[in-house]
Task: structure prediction
Amino acid sequence: MNASRNAILIAVGVFLYLPIAILAVFSFNASPLMAFPLSGFTWDWYRHLADNREFQAGFVTSFLIAQPVGVMSAGLGLMAALALTSSRLRWRLGFIALLLVPFLAPRTVLSIAQAMMISRLGLDRGPVVLIIAQTIVIIPFTAALLSSVLMRLDARLEEAARDLGATPWESFRLVVLPQIQSTLVAAYSIGVILSLGDLTIATFLSGRVQPLSLIVASQFLRQLSPDLNAIQVVMLALTAVIVAITEIYGWRRRRRRERLLEIA
Amino acid sequence: MTENGAYSFLTARGLCKAYGGKASKRAMAVAGVDFDIGERAFTTLLGPSGCGKTTILRLIAGFEHPSAGELRLEGVSLAGVPPERRPVNTVFQSYALFPHLSVADNVAFSLKLRRSEGDIARKVAGALAAVHMAEYADRFPHELSGGQQQRVAVARAMIAEPRLLLLDEPLSALDRKMRLHLQGELKDLQRRLGIAFVYVTHDQEEAFALSDFIFVMNKGRIVQTGRPEDIYARPVNTFVADFIGGGVMVPAEVRQCAGASAWIATPLGLYEAPASPALNAASQAALVLRPEALLSCAASDAGAFAAVVSSVVFRGDRFTIGAEVGDLSLRFNSEVLLDVGARISLRLDPRKTFVTAVGD
Amino acid sequence: MRLLPTKPFSRASLAAPVAALIGLGAVVPMAMFLVISVYSVDFDSYTLQPNFTMASWREVWTHASYWILIGKTLNNGLLAVVMTAIVGYPLALALSRLPKSAKGAALVILLTPLYTGEIVRVYAWRLVLGQDGLVNALLMFAHVISEPLRFLLFSPFATHLALFYDDLPFMALALWVAVERVDSRLIEAARDLGCRPTTAFRLVILPLTGPGLAAGTFMVFALAGGEALAPNLLGGTTGATPMTMIDNLFGTAFDWPTASALALTLLLVLLFAAFLLSGLALVLSGGLRPLRRSFA
Result:
């Protein structure tokens, strides 16, 4: 039983991480040709990045765009999740459907529609529009994540706080917030990561701003250079680091809470 | 006015709470309840699960809004007043201690909210000492046993000096020994503090041990109120008698009523027994026959009837004997071991029985 | 004692700002397709003329080329659903059999590939499937083939593989959640009564996870049908999608009305097909009856 289980998990795991692994491998490959057989190990491509002004500018741009996206998508996702876990929400199914729209709609179509609307309204494409548009498509993720955690909280704890004299806001701040802290950080991380990885929305709405994904995409069509590889791997590594830090932080708080809840 | 004529501290009139979706399918968790609770009384809401007792508690605390009727505290209506504004505190069945705060911080919670004057630390120490938990101030809830957590929950609720303390089956998750011990502590605490306690339980023994007054509830209504001994001796109907006392209901035909007693005809014979004043000659009635009312006797004694032993259960200090008389399965206590299948004679002492109406 | 009533603030009202943002930022723009689709374009001045003409709708609905493209997206969606469901079920069952402590880590491992950027994934597939890529290198190394396989990249194979890769985590997640909810004792009971594993799957797991399968189907169909980048960059000449066409009409050709008409048509077709397919999944899995009962 466990053997077949492990076989499936390993097979799928290899499949899911294979393309990423290959990317990493080629970024250290000594040859400028991205072809097998491999030629030897080198840090050269990464060293090139240090001189690549365009890359650095793109990286900074992407990073600066991702921060407000992370914060806003976490905050709005929290609001959506709180509304979903409230017993007094009317048109619950409609709200859920609305939350699914940015997730399920073809991103190209959505971005073009947004570009059309921006133009008709006389607004400019640019960082603000980009940030808002990315936030909108990320909210379904953060809302789903935060809802799943909020649903599992002990409702009695908030009642106890209210019973002892806390207003609804104080009850939220003193009882709910401490318990979802690590999830909020995770939601912020997801927002940052998904913003860094976006290409489609940036294509249509970023205007003159050039996040890294746009730079890579425009070069992608011209040639496959190992520089691009190295860029990708750096982004991947960054993503992995963010995920790892978030998970470890969350894991430690979860372990502590699990022990607490075992008794109660 | 409360049961004993004292000033009514907490009053309910026509209190209703309905649940469910469509109006046609709505269930009434609380279906028209009136009560008066005194300022220094230990009152218990007793009943089977689903009878509405917890709902009433939540209505008093403010976690639910009544569908109809009103609640008044010292004459002031509680309608629209949120839980944090009511001078009422709750001890929850699951303790609901804040897992991310220490015991001391848990207890200090309400004081810190109010930014109250005075030495919070001293008050916390005092509250913890009152529940014998002073040494655990720096521990966290997950490090405590169930009984210890419950004590902390009580301290946390008491420190805010509420006028009314609500307790929602606080001891049901504990083992028997701890439960009995904490029952004593709670009763003691209530007497010392002199405030009103409203306690919810489905355990009749617990209710009897703790309460000054009991409200017996069934299907969203209060069926009987009174002192424990009164309810035990004079249950108002067979539901209460059965829930409270574990006796056998013997069908009885009322021949004649005479104030507090009645002449009845039962399969076991004709008797004059204490009876519910609500009965008359036409009522459907039952004789509440508790084990203590039955005695083993000789066949020649007056009023004796024949029975066959059907079961023998050892209780430590005595045997509980099950005996069949015709269709009836009776129970009585005996210090002597009897054989299953033995033919014996029994008689009953009508003074230890009660005639009550059939119903719930 | 002052017990003044207060006006309650319900957390439900927090839904309003979020709904407003999504409504104005996503729903309204797409609804605007309807308006713009009946406008006309003055190609001399490159301006959009507010008008009422059904020209763009006629254009879209009478030319087969648009419908061929729409057919391609439907095909992309359908294949992705089938492939992810076939792999997703064993994967979900395997995940559900992990010890509790490993499940959290497994979730992270499952979802992390989603965090990689759109371009990164496409890029990586180029390296894996190309003529000098990993697969060909391995096969040649093992002497299975003597010439590199050409059909791996810039072909429907690459497109469907990439879509499968992108959407597998979503289907697996939907199925995993559904499988976790099935009482494992039910499966044990079925086996106890003599069911072979495949029969137990068909008679117990499939019906009880029907709603999860339907949800996953809807999700994957919408996601795969809506993907433009991967088909475009990996599918070669076969990788054109309606989205590509909409992009051309919108940008290069400045034919906003036709772009809008096509976009709206695509959205409606995708939505309709997604509902149809997920309903089919629910019915075929046998999951309709348990679902009906739980609503009764």
In short: The mean pLDDT of chain A is 87. Residues 84 and 93 of chain A are 10 Å apart (CA to CA). Chain A touches chain C through 85 residues (CB under 8 Å). Chain A has two domains: 1-42, 49-263.
